[in-house]
Write a structure and sequence with these properties.
The chain has a domain of 290 residues: Alpha-Beta Barrel (TIM Barrel). The chain starts with 13 loop residues before the first helix and ends with a helix. 43% of the residues lie in helices and 10% in strands. It contains 16 helices and 11 strands. It has 462 residues and is an alpha/beta fold. Helix 4 packs parallel to helix 6 and helix 8 packs across helix 13.
């Protein structure tokens, strides 16, 4: 016989809890004064209760159920970078030891049959990172895929590229980027599970943008693209995926990833396109902005809990990147590759579809982030839209102002960062990789780190 163990306890409302807080504080403060703010923008209450949730709570579904029986309810793909120095044996070794996909930087001149010999594209996901013309990069990749005899519908992955790359990286007009996108849409037509482009919000957050601004500018890009392409909006939403760099504020980043997916769904509805949440692919990388060249061991911790935030936030693809990856040791790359395995095999995050579902705090945070971003996007459109603010430099100046604020706060120690301006690693454990000079034109947005000024001052003193 089942017994209700809670029947002897009266129901407690949020008001009851806050009244108890007032009593426990003994007149030294009111509950409302215990709140704080997220990223100096969103007010956070000291506690949340069921009555704070203004909508029906449901479990989110980040992907379709697996076609194979016995698979866990939650899946994500663990991808690793194929560096120019990597050999075919090293690529195969990574895929045999935890990697489930590849990020493939391409100039368009690589010998893919030699580099990818023995790789079976139908069983992994592959994301192309164009280092030049994205069309040339995809055509090179397409030639290799066709040489393997794999059916186009079995190919999974996408282009880690956005039309805005032509603006920020090549200093070209957005119109050229849109033309390249339309070519990619045509070329990838026979690959229904391969995405033609992404909404690359990491461009902004890795350059120091406010996290909400990163979402706003990414959505602003998408609006501009939708207004310029000749194809139907449904085609755009079917062939895009969402890309983000996950920072170090755990709950804030979980909420931000959840909000990103919802915001794109809301935007699609404005174009009369209904998109299910499980149809949107979210590609998450660990942020370099929050790491430091002064302390490798703290970076390892950061990239692990950033990956945790990504998975809880609904990541379909997880890219754990060591800092200065092109110079990373074999051990550093192996540790990064194994983070995903830890989250599955030790944290069991693949055993539940949506572990954070119903959390009063997160449900409110996601709603607030969606509202804040939609308001910011409306203001951006009133200012002329994403492209106009890019051409005038208003957007870039906004990002750089937030960057300067954070870097200055770390430099004068009004904000602390472990391993950079606080609790520095002893000499025997110090990282201290070479610090290349940071150069950025007025119209550019270059990735950097919050601790860059501290790193520069520290390394110059040695």
């Amino acid at each position: 016989m089942e017994q209700d163990l809670f029947s002897g306890f009266p129901n407690a409302t949020k008001e009851d809890w806050l009244r108890q807080v007032t009593q426990d504080l003994k007149g030294k403060g009111q509950p409302e004064s215990l709140g704080t703010s997220l990223w100096d923008t969103l007010p956070l209450q000291p506690m949340y209760a069921l009555e704070d949730v203004q909508h029906a709570v449901k479990q989110r579904r980040f992907h379709a159920p697996s076609e194979f029986p016995g698979m866990p309810p939650r899946n994500w793909s663990n991808v690793v970078t194929v560096l120019p120095s990597d050999t075919n044996a090293e690529v195969l070794a990574a895929l045999e030891n935890g990697a489930e996909g590849l990020v493939l930087p391409l100039q368009g001149t690589e010998e893919l049959p030699e580099l990818l010999q023995g790789v079976l594209p139908q069983y992994i996901s592959i994301y192309l990172l164009p280092l030049g013309n994205p069309v040339s990069a995809f055509q090179l990749f397409q030639d290799w895929v066709e040489s393997t005899g794999v059916d186009g519908s079995a190919l999974h992955g996408g282009m880690l590229w956005s039309p805005a790359d032509q603006v920020f990286d090549q200093q070209q007009d957005l119109g050229l980027g849109v033309e390249l996108l339309e070519e990619l849409l045509e070329l990838t037509e026979g690959y229904p599970n391969f995405k033609a482009f992404c909404i690359k919000t990491s461009r902004y957050s890795e350059s120091g943008a406010h996290p909400v601004d990163a979402l706003t500018f990414g959505l602003g890009e998408l609006v501009e693209i939708l207004d310029r392409v000749s194809c139907a909006p449904r085609t755009i939403f079917e062939k895009l995926f969402l890309e983000t760099a996950v920072g170090e504020h755990h709950f804030g980043e979980v909420g931000r990833q959840l909000a990103f997916r919802q915001l794109v769904q809301n935007l699609a509805l404005l174009y009369q396109v209904e998109v299910e949440e499980q149809e949107l692919l979210l590609f998450c990388q660990t942020a370099h902005w929050s790491q430091s060249v002064l302390d490798a061991h703290t970076n390892t911790i950061r990239q692990t809990y950033q990956a945790l935030s990504a998975v809880l936030g609904g990541a379909n693809v997880l890219w754990v990147r060591p800092l200065e990856e092109e110079n990373a040791s074999t051990q550093e790359r192996r540790i990064a590759r194994n983070v995903s395995a830890i989250l599955k095999e030790e944290a069991y995050l693949d055993k539940v579809q949506d572990p954070s579902a119903g959390a009063y705090f997160l449900e409110n945070l996601v709603a607030d982030l969606v509202q804040e971003t939609q308001t910011a996007l409306t203001l951006l459109e009133q200012e002329g839209g994403w492209w106009k603010t890019c051409k005038t430099g208003t957007l870039q100046n906004r990002v750089k102002a937030n960057r300067a604020k954070i870097q200055g706060a770390l430099l004068d120690k009004t904000q602390m960062k472990v391993g950079a301006n606080a609790y520095a690693a002893p000499v025997s454990l110090s990282y201290n990789k070479p610090l290349p000079p940071f150069e950025e034109a007025a119209q550019e947005l270059k990735p950097t780190r919050a601790a860059y000024l501290v790193e520069s001052l520290t390394l110059d003193a040695q």
